[in-house]
Amino acid sequence: MSAHWRIGAACTAVLTLTLTACGGAKVGDDSSSGKTASAGTCGTFNLAVNPWVGYEADAAVVAYVAEHDLGCTVKKKDLKEEIAWQGFGTGEVDAILENWGHDDLKKKYITQQKVAAEAGQTGNKGIIGWYVPPWLAKAHPDILDWKNLDKYASKFKTSESGGKGQLLDGDPSYVTNDEALVKNLKLDFKVVYAGSETALIQAFRTAEKNKTWVIGYFYEPQWFLSEVPLKKVTLPTYKTGCDAVASKIACDYPVYDLDKVVSAKFAASGSPAYKLVKNFNWTNDDQNTVAKYIAQDKLSDDEAAKKWVDANRAKVDAWLK
Amino acid sequence: MAVAADAAGPAARVRTRITRPMAVAAIVAVWLLLFAALRGRQTLTLAAADLTSLHHWLNDVDDSIGAHRNSNPLFLYFFNEIRLVIDHLVTFVQGLISQPTGGRPVPQIGWLGVVGLTGYAAWALGNGRVALLAVAGFTFFGLQGLWQESMDTLALTLSAVLVALLIGIPIGVWAGLSDRVGGIVTPFLDFMQTLPTFVYLAPLTLFFLIGGASATITTVIYAAPPAIRITAHALRSVPRVSVEAAESMGATRTQQLLKVLLPMSKRTVVMGVNQTIMAALAMVTIAALIDAPGLGKTVVQALQSLDVGTAFNAGLAIVVMAIVLDRVTTAAAARAETARGAGPRPRAWRRPLLAAGAVAAAVLVYLSHTYVWAAEFPGDGATGHHIASAADTVTAWLQDHLSGLTNTVRDVVTDGLLNPFQTLLTDSPWWLVGTVLVALGAVLGGLRAAVTAAVCVGLLVGTGVWSDAMTTLASTAVATALVMLIGVAVGVWMGRSALVDRLVRPTLDAAQVMPPFVYLVPFLALFGATRFTAIVAAVVYAAPVAVKIIADGVRQVPESTVEAATSAGSSTWQIITKVQLPMARGALTLATNQGLIYVLSMVVVGGLVGAGALGYDVVAGFSQGELYGKGLAAGLAIVLLGVMFDRITQAAARRTRA
User: Which residue among B201, B521, B625 sits closest to A108, beta carbon to beta carbon?
Assistant: First the structure.
């Protein structure tokens, strides 16, 4: 019982204290209410954000410009690729800023359901391939040619690879031909699925630090390459059509021109945000800079975008024309 | 099968105790012999990108739902109505505590109001101690710099729990009153709890769109089953005598329910609420994948750049929220129990105090509604930064100093235990493994368990992912064995000492609700992307349940029995192995059952860190359209494994109790 009394007394004390200290700004005063939404013609802009840092960098800059230069209310939606595409149909997503191929989704949503439309390239070149940690490329330079991989296969053995060399693959949503490549190039390797990008990056990070042997799937542009500059292994050169039959592929990945996709409704809306998305174009270096601000310098999306926009006003102005 | 008939026959009852381990040994011996002869034949392997006709068909179903979403009004209006109601609920709660609303730059109730209300509610429903804990915990969110994220999570959790209880308690009451309804509902509950969320996450956003409603419904699907199960269980455990007494006094069925059954099962029903909250919090990071705001998003985003510190800080907030809500509901359950027997004096004092508290809380709410200092949490979350950098330091130290040792452990377990067992399962002909499973079901669980096992094996073959299922089964079995090892060791320790229990329990709670990826990044550094990492993840998540159940079982061994053994000169070791563990046999079987189910619920997480097999299939199905059908089939395979082992272990538990 006494415990309850004490709490009661404490409550009363708090009460009197706060009542006497009741100064301070009120909610809704100008000093306290942050930025007021500037009245623009833009309205709400639903931007999908797919889960990798490069995309986050794209979205950070586009959202920043849309908010500050166009007065849009930007709603960023953190979604996996499949669900973001689905959002075109349900009207919940206006734009995807960095699309990696995905011909199946294009067929389904652009050609068949006609709910989405292409909005040009981002200017980023997507490179996919097999990478090794830099110490390994330095110690054994010949490893960067696929013909020499078999020579080192036994070094890449792990508890998961069943006696063969391990080729580590990452997130299942990423484009990969690795099983076919291993089979058709007759390599003494086994594809092991790490299952997520987190697992893949951690594997490379550990390998570089402890000088252990790892070879795996990776891609550029990617923020991690500015922490550990992985080296790409050359595969047989890509020629148009050499990847026509998935199970027969024996050549390198093509260079992907990453592109933007918008919902059909958004494209027809005449929103200034649509023009921004359509004109948005930058280089791999630009994206890497912003991605580094976010991933390594730990800036918030908005701070990172502001830093880049302030330094690259001319590029931004070109998108707004 | 001959063994099955033998063990199930009534004549065998007397000798079952002796024959059961022998029968198991015989089955295993026959299996090994046949494996040696038939290795590599009829193994039903399917490559990562290959699909069966069932998978294609499931793809087509998914596609046609997507394509006809807008042209099927009945379908659309039905789901739209549900979505609207839930969306309104979520938006309302968010407007109260987490999101700017109605032209205000801040929510209706600021941090001071929320802390005050929580403290008051904790005190009124529970006691002074949990009220202090609640106030401290909620203030901690602000110090971490995660006030708004925490409130977003709280808003979604509260909405989901509310919906789950609105649906769950009536169904639970119905299932508790009628055995037939109970029988029909149970398989659905199993399904809801073991089907991996990834399987229905994408379709759900088709029906209910991206946003609060989908996030809430995802959570409800996973969180409602405990409320239903525990409510039903509570009603069933009300003593027959009380019901009969009411009957003889001429009470109608409604009167019986309202005046006897519900009041008498109040305490257990509150425990159901508790479990529902815990389950809802476990969904926080998964819901973040479909844009649910809150702490889950912070975790997911931090891990994209492997920022363990930030992820840990947010994970810690989830843990604190879980512990606060758990202790408050537990205290509320205890009050529900004691209030029934309390004398009139405390009640007389309590009324005015409650009223005074309500006034104080109302004042705090008003202040936080009106003044900025009480609306927005002051400070810049410096504590959060300290926590993050401390977590980073610890992680870096572990990675630097333990990696040699951990590789050895991994290789010993993988080569010595996992690989041989996996080879045995995946390289045996499917019908051989199937027969072995059915025979084991018969010996351990009896005829009904054997029939269930047979049906599950048949359906597993039908899913087309048999070989992957066997790979997953091998890892699951190894993980469950480790869970039981830890469960017995720590459980006995906790069961024998109240002090140890009090010290260890918060760690167990943390392990259960901390989002797995927060500790998985260091594990990945230590063990690499391997099946072993997946096993460790499953053990971290499942061991606490086993530990808690076993500790409970050991504690329930009558004091007098232990004392008798002590006075007879038994050593501590003898008391544990000859008295406490044998007498807690029921708890051990239950712990195995729950341990297995929890391990299975981590299969998908395992797929994200190198386990491959079913977990990877599910993740891939979630990410790639053409693999959707296969992912769904893999999800069903996980459910089938779960149901099979649940039925076998439960039947075995009933036998040991009998």
Answer: B625
Task: State the CATH architecture for A44-124+258-320.
Answer: 3-Layer(aba) Sandwich (3.40)
ipTM value for the complex = 0.76
pLDDT in tens, B358-398: 888 888 888 888 877 877 888 777 888 888 888 888 888 88
Looking at beta carbons, which residues of chain B come within 8 Å of A56? 301, 304
Cβ–Cβ of B529/A168 closer than 8 Å?
yes
Domain A127-248 is of which CATH architecture? 3-Layer(aba) Sandwich (3.40)
- Of the spans B116-120, B186-190, B443-447, B624-628, which averages the highest pLDDT? B116-120
- A77 vs B49, B210, B609: nearest CB: B210
Contact (Cβ atoms closer than 8 angstroms) between residue A250 and residue A185: yes
Domains of chain B: 72-380 (1.10.3720.10), 398-427+467-632 (1.10.3720.10)
Which value, to the nearest 10 degrees, does the dihedral of the CA atoms of residues B287, B292, B296, B297 take? 130
Cα separations in angstroms, B448 against B26, B441, B584, B588: 21, 8, 25, 22
Give the distance from CA B599 to its chain's centroid: 10
Backbone Cα Rg of chain A: 25
Inter-chain Cβ pairs, chain A and chain B, closer than 8 A: 219
Which DSSP string corresponds to A260-315?
EEEEHHHHHTT-HHHHHHHH----HHHHHHHHHHHHTS---HHHHHHHHHHHTHHH
Q: Which residue has the tokens 């004392």?
A: B563
Q: What is the pLDDT of residues B317-358, one digit of tens each?
A: 999 999 899 889 888 878 876 765 554 455 667 788 888 888
Q: What is the rounded CA–CA span in Å between residue B191 and residue B221?
A: 10
Distances (CA, A) of B192 to A268, A300, B231, B233, B474: 42, 37, 17, 18, 24
DSSP letter for B391, please: H
Q: Quote the tokens at residue B327.
A: 């202790």
Nearest residue of A to residue B529, measured between CA atoms: A194
CA angle B45, B46, B49 (to 5 degrees): 160
- Whether residue A158 and residue B530 make contact (CB cut-off 8 A), yes or no, is yes
From B605, which residue of chain A is nearest by alpha-carbon distance?
A195
pTM here is 0.82
Min Cα–Cα distance to chain A from B341, Å: 16
Distance from CA of B407 to the nearest CA of A (A): 10
**Stretch (H or E) spanning B66:** helix B53-67
CB B531 within 8 A of CB B603: no
Cα B650 to Cα B644: distance, rounded to the nearest angstrom: 10
What are the extents of the domains in chain A? 44-124+258-320, 127-248
Distance of alpha carbon B25 from alpha carbon B32, whole angstroms: 11
The torsion angles phi and psi of B127, rounded to 5 degrees, stand at -150, 180
